[in-house]
Amino acid sequence: MEIPAQEQKTKKWLKSHLLNDEIELQDLYELEQLDLDLLMAETAEIRSDVENRSRSYGRWCTAGYFLELARIIDRRRQESS
User: Fold this and answer.
1) Which DSSP letter does residue 31 get?
2) Distance CA 52, CA 45 (A)
3) Cα–Cα distance between 63 and 26 in angstroms, integer?
């Protein structure tokens, strides 16, 4: 899947505990489906924790970016197969 130019410039990253790695936004396009699923689960959990929002608003917002892009990539993969 081609990475859009604006995402190649943007340096957004998330420390994933489930993947035990720092993932950059553009890395989502290269993740295997299982890893993408784990990342979606992890970021959904971060977003659902109301206390986490007030404790770490930046991480909460970044998790939202990652979750939405992962969902888009997942949907496109399903449509193309």
Assistant:
1) S
2) 10
3) 14
